Each structure stands twice: as C-alpha cells, then as structure tokens.
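EI: anyone free to look at a 398-residue chain?
SC: sure, send it
EI:
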Amino acid sequence: MTERRDDALQRLVDSVDVSAIDALTCALIAEPSVNPGGTEESTVTVLADACRAAGFAVAVVDAAPGRPNLVATAQVGGDGPGLMLLGHSDVVPAGPGWTADPFVPRRDGDLIIGRGASDMKGGIASAVAAMSALQRAAEFGVTLTGPVQLVVTVDEEEHGTGVRQLVARGVDREFAGCIVAEPTRMEVVRGCRGASYFDIEVTGRAAHSGRPSDGVSAIDAAARVIEVIRADQERLAADPDPLLGFGTWNVGTIEGGQGISVVAPSCSLGVDRRLMPGEDVEQIGRDLQAAIHAAGIESDGVTVTVAPTMFLPGFATDGDHPLVTAAADASGGAVGGWTAACDGGFISTALGIPTVVMGPGDINGQAHQPDESVRLSELADAARAYVRAAVALLGEAE
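SC: here you go
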C-alpha cells in the first residue's frame, strides 16, 4: 500500500464516531433481551432504527414469533464478495450480585456497565460504527470491491433459533469472510469448538425401599452411565488438537427418584458435549448409546435413551487464509482457538463462509457475570479494527 493510501486509510479509521458507539451500546443495554424468555424484539427495534439512521438497508425477519433477526447492509463498494459482521441480540439472565440495575447502563470512567455490555451489545455497536465509517470510504479515497453486512441473530445463548433460520433462508450474496464480534479481547480466533446438549433418560422399576431387590434403581443405572461418560472423556483427552484441545463432556444436571423410601423408577441427566470441528452430534449420540449397551447397563429392566437436543458446530479456518491475515493485521492481536462456541460455526460449516471471531471485551473476565462491563476505548479500537480489516479484505488493489 502506498504512503498516500496509508494516509487515506488512517483518516478513514480516525473518522469512527466514538460517541455514537457509546450511545448505541447504552441504548441496547437498556432494552432487556434476556434468554430464555424470547425478549429480543425491543433490542432489535432500537438497533434497526440506528442502522436505518446510518443509511443502511435493513431487513428484519422473524426467526420465531416476536424474535427477529436483523440484516443491515452498507453498500460501501462494488458488487464483489462482501464482509459479514455477525452478532446476537440476546443476553443471559442477570442473576444475583449486581450492585445496580443491570439494564440501566452506567459509567465508571471508561467502563460501560450493564448486562450485555461485552456479550455482545458493545461489539454490535462497534460494528455499526465501523460500517458507518466505511460508507464514507470514497470520501477518503479508499475504494472497496464489495459491501459490508451486519447480521444479528436471536437465541444464540440457548438453542440457536436465529442462526438456524438464517441458514435455512440463505444469504443474498457471496462473502469473502465473516467476523463474529464476540468478546475475545480483540484476539483473532480462527477456530472454535462446537457445543451440543443431550437428554439421557434412564428407566428402572419402583419398589419399596425395605426390599430394594424387588426393584431396579434408575439412579444406580444413571451413575453407571456417568462412569461411561467419564471413560470417554479420558479417551478424548488422550488425543488433543493443537488448536482447540479436545471435546469435553459435562454432566450438568441430574434429576430422579420418587421419594426416599422408593427405589427410583426414573432418572434424567442433562449432558453437555463440546464438539471438535467435523464431529457429528447424531453419531456421538449413537456411540454413547452403544457404549452404554456394551457396559451392560441396559439389563434387568433398565432402559436408557440418549437424545441430542441442541448443537452448534465447531469450525476452523486455515491460519494462512486472507481473512485471518486481514483480521490479525487490523487488530494486532494474537491468533488462536477458542473453547467456547458461537453462531460462527453455522456460518462456516453450513454457509461455507470463512469465519473468525474477534471482538471487544473478555468472555471469561467480563461476560455472564454481575456488573458486566466493557471499556469504551476498547469498543472504539474494535470499530477501527473492523474498518481496517474490511479495507484489507475488500480494498481494491492499485
């Protein structure tokens, strides 16, 4: 890039409106979109209004009744492949421990505090500000070959209803890449594990606890199922992937029994299985069912059923892909993998769009906890990085 083009890009980057990021982040926090609950609509309305005011073409489509996805397009360049910026409008419940109302945004110096500040309403506001700046690219002598599109889905924190609707509808153009604005401290995540949930139902036979041999305890059988899961975890851990580690099991919930004086006729397990790229959740369920059968648990009146109830696929983008290079150069951050899961897995695997995750905030240090926060300066840096990445990926060669 010539010195003149470098200067033009810097002036474009410097044009990012930080006050607009502040205002939109706070406006989005003030609209609770707690999931579970299906309450994203008011948040999406505020976001759609902001995108229309910025001059974007906006489409709002229900993924479920009252739960709309948003697609906002900034026609910043030619008709070539575009750049997708991906976010989600829902937030997890506030929970206990907040020092003030979680849905009344407040400031502590550079910090913006409120539920969703880092995960991920601040990242969405940064994306909108970047797109607003990119719409003025020609004024700064910067030419782009394709549009930039913001996609915001519902229900990311629970069952992925929004991204599944997006995949079913398809996209309206070709994309050179997708950047998910989840909180990564602006490090470039080129691969994520996926996630899946399983319901495991164990049925035994009730009897009086005075003669437990007359019955078959579903709780005892469920304990043996947990041992099968633990053994499979050891198998997975023995062969880690250098980028993403290994798939993991977690028995998150257990519920069973009829009463203390009754041999338990039933027991239910809620199990999380984190997925490596390319793993098939249906096959994992069949393999677990087969291992349970091989362990002899399904005998003497015991039945066990394993049913997947949710999955997000994992993905990995090649380290030398132009999207990875553009994002890393734009942010100056490290490149690596992520143990968390996100909607980007569907964008990569179902839509075939190269994907990375790169956003402001810290998924471990700030998100999903009391007094969730993000620094405005970090949101501004994120918006500037999105501008630089878009120009690197879509910029017209001299």
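EI: The mean pLDDT is 96.
SC: 👍
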